[in-house]
Amino acid sequence: MTRTAALGIGDEVVGVPAHIGLFYDAEPERRQRRLEFLRPAIEDRRQGIMLLAPPGIADSALRQLEADLGGSLEDDVRRGRVVVAHYDKDPDLLLENIRGALDTLAAAGHDVVRLFAQVAWGAEGFPFPEDHLWAESRLNDVLAGTSVICACAYDVSELPDRALISGGLEAHPCVVIGGRLTESPNYLTPPEYMRSFLRNARSGAGL
Amino acid sequence: MDLHRAELAADSLPSEVASLDAAAVIIWANAAWLLAAGNELGELLGGCLVGVDFIRQCRARRTTVADSIATGVATVIAGELRHFERDLTSADGLRIWRFQASPLRGSMPGAVLIRSETTGRSRTAPWERPDPEDIPIRIAQLTPREREVLTLMCRGRSNREIAAELGIAYTTVRSHVQRLIDKLGARSRLEAVARAHRAGIA
User: Fold this and answer.
1) Is the reported ipTM for this assembly greater than 0.95?
2) Which residues of chain B does A178 touch, with a Cβ-Cβ cutoff of 8 Å?
3) All domains in chain A, ordered by first residue
4) Mutating which of A30, A98, A130 best tests the B interface, going by the most B Cβ atoms within 10 A?
5) pLDDT by residue for chain B (202 residues), tens digit each?
6) Is the whole-model pTM more than 0.90?
7) What is the four-CA torsion angle of A21, A23, A27, A28, rounded to 10 degrees?
8) CATH topology for B127-198?
């Protein structure tokens, strides 16, 4: 039987594990959605939290979350219930970083882990788009069999259409658009994603 | 500004995105979509604000283009079409927009609409750079082991999986990957894969 949990956004419920493309429009909505998504874990100490962001952004993302919450997470960070992890320019190392942090949280016995990943094109330490999208696709394999609900946050106000379709929609089984959860209309499994990438590379149609 | 830089600039323009419910009513739109409601494309489609029945608005324009878009979107919402795409040209013929619709499925039937100006843009991804002219020579410089690693990279394998398949250490695979990326003059793992694939490897 598939396990489910509250997404935290609206009244939506997701199967666990979940890999969700969270599309938001500019920073205020990102902060709102992040707070909604993480609040169930903040209120339920059996759940773990992982924030994933580029090196120069991760700490400020944590501070911002604390400001939005109106309280400090310092104690949770010290106890390992809240983990801040960094993107890596190397997409394979990025996956290893995620895997390592999730293993640590799982070993600590957390019932569910909520992973909020902040996509930041062009930020220092962030992979090139083609590498990032491959890592997004392969993240589905990393999450399989875990108790992780992962939301990858994409700013549609900055996103070119090709990256939106080829990356955001193809790499995530589910998407949140306008605060509503739905299956991704364009989802490809990791092998399908790779075949699609190679077809496009061959035809010169881009990624 | 050269063509490549111009394409990069054009590709960095934000897309206009909206989602429709099963009744074709716009239930969410990003700021770019709302801003564009009053431009020429918005006019063409009859203004498209949240709460508006998109298909009815298009039909009300009584133009061939708007009507075909209404039909395309209706077909997508009905689940009979996985992707609808239509290019639109301005009245003076100088500007082109691409209109795309994809279905939502699952608990909330409907559609995602994406519009973007494509004037002067190629369909090549902005991050896809031309292969160096000497790519056959570069590939010939790969060792047999690097070719094996590259072939597995082309199948989407991670370094951990490659290490397991070839029976070598993870750190050794990392070294091979970095070296072959450098040899192919690629900026990234997937650019190396794309170049290798175009050159006939895997």
Assistant:
1) no
2) 19, 27-29
3) 9-203 (3.40.50.300)
4) A130
5) 333 443 444 445 567 788 888 899 988 887 778 777 666 666 666 557 788 899 988 888 888 888 888 888 998 888 777 778 887 777 777 777 778 888 876 666 788 888 777 665 544 454 566 788 788 899 999 999 999 999 999 999 999 999 999 999 999 999 999 999 999 999 999 999 999 999 888 7
6) no
7) -110
8) Arc Repressor Mutant, subunit A (1.10.10)
